Amino acid sequence: MASHKLCMIPGPIEFHEDVLQAMATPATSHVAPNFIPALGESIELLRQILFTSGQPFIIAGSGTLGWDMTASNLIEAGEDVLVCNSGYFGDRFGECLETYGAKVTHLRVPIGESPKLDDVAAALKTKKFKAITITHVDTSTGVLADIKGIADVVRRESPETLVVVDGVCSVGSEEIRMDAWGIDVVVTASQKALGAPPGLCVMGVSERAIGVFKNRNTPVPNYYANWNRWLPIMNAYEARKPSYFATPAVQNVFALNVSLKQIVAQGIEKRFAVHKEASAKAKKFIHDLGLKLVPTSLEHAANGMSAVYYPEGVAATDLLPKLAAHGIVAAGGLHVEIAPKYFRIGHMGISVTEPERGHLDATLNALKASLAECGYKGAL
Ligand SMILES: *Cc1c(COP(=O)(O)O)cnc(C)c1O
Q: Tens digit of pLDDT for each residue in 15-65?
């Protein structure tokens, strides 16, 4: 791989050499005998990674396409959806749902907080919601939501409500057990903790949600995102048969296939634990430097990334270019209300599962050196 600055943002993340190599394969037909099993096997691997017997989808697009797929296939115009909103991505998912005529109620939490189970229970009592959406890791705040706890509350208060998880920044770095926890939809994308280049929308959909989709009263108000077109394609590839609706992103699928195989080979449980350990190490280092995290408690801080306030006297315009000069690309703030006040570091995928690469240490050491160059004395 060409030498480059380390991409330590909350996605795209650093790619394994074998994943990149898969992008460099020759032009290949989407019905070629070597492509069909790559997509078919990836669908099977996703079932293992998401702990579900439901239906995975792998479709050219980004995570955002998963919002359109959810909104257009599972919600009908006029239906109510409760959006557990912990930042930027809750606002955007809400906008997408409204585009298809959903009536959205936002359950907003203060910046840095995660949705409280009692508040979710109270909101569910106000009306009948077709679905509830939860941002598992809100990439704008680094907050981790308790999706297991929320799904329990939904089962108790409003069992028919579909539980939809925006797992774009959590699948592959945070524990998710779709079937055991009663989760109906998980939306993700190739470029975050799944460790492949951007270009694929990846989803898991429960059998129950597929049933709800099949019993719609109105047609799906979208052409490309319509599951009536994609279900036969996913089924065909899984049965190792060629089929066509719209050309799959062949090389992206080859790359995702390599990455999913690596994830399963390493062990999914182990992967959760390794991300937790690396996150604890990063957060301790940040704390020891005298910096404050955006999440108000470590209990609900994401394991794949850290959102950190700049200390007094240090600005985005100072720190990020200095980090870049040390070879580390970090991300600025994203939450509109606090954007200039904090920065974000990703610690997902090979950067933590293969610690011998030294990515996390290099990032933390660069952070310390860059803060010193900014004139920060603090606890250095
Ligand atoms: C990145 C992200 C998205 C959007 O995904 P794209 O692949 O950029 O379209 C949605 N939700 C969350 C939580 C994200 O982190």
A: 999 999 999 999 999 999 999 999 999 999 999 999 999 999 999 999 999
> Which domains occur in the chain, in start order?
6-12+267-379 (3.90.1150.10), 17-265 (3.40.640.10)
- Is residue 344 annotated as involved in ligand binding? yes
Q: What's the pLDDT at 1?
A: 66
Instruction: Please report the atom of ligand 1 found closest to the CA of residue 67.
Output: 10
E strand map for the chain: 6-7, 55-60, 80-85, 103-108, 131-135, 137-138, 143-144, 162-166, 185-189, 200-205, 305-309, 328-329, 331-332, 342-346
User: What distance in angstroms lies between residue 356's CA and the mean position of ligand 1's atoms?
Assistant: 28
The pLDDT tens digits for 273-317 are: 999 999 999 999 999 999 999 999 999 999 999 999 999 989 877
The amino acid that residue 163 corresponds to is V
Q: Which two tokens stand for residue 357?
A: 């690469």
Work out which ligand 1 atom sits closest to the CA atom of 89.
11
163 alpha carbon – ligand 1 mean position (Å): 18
- Measured between alpha carbons, how far is 142 from 235 in angstroms, rounded to an integer? 36
Question: Do residues 271 and 263 make contact, with C-beta atoms less than 8 angstroms apart?
Answer: yes
Going by alpha carbons, the residue nearest to atom 2 of ligand 1 is 168
Q: How many CA atoms lie within 13 A of 169 on its CB side?
A: 29
Q: Establish whether residue 166 lines the binding site of ligand 1, counting it when its CB lies within 6 angstroms of any ligand atom.
A: yes
As given in the structure block, the two tokens for residue 77 are: 């115009």
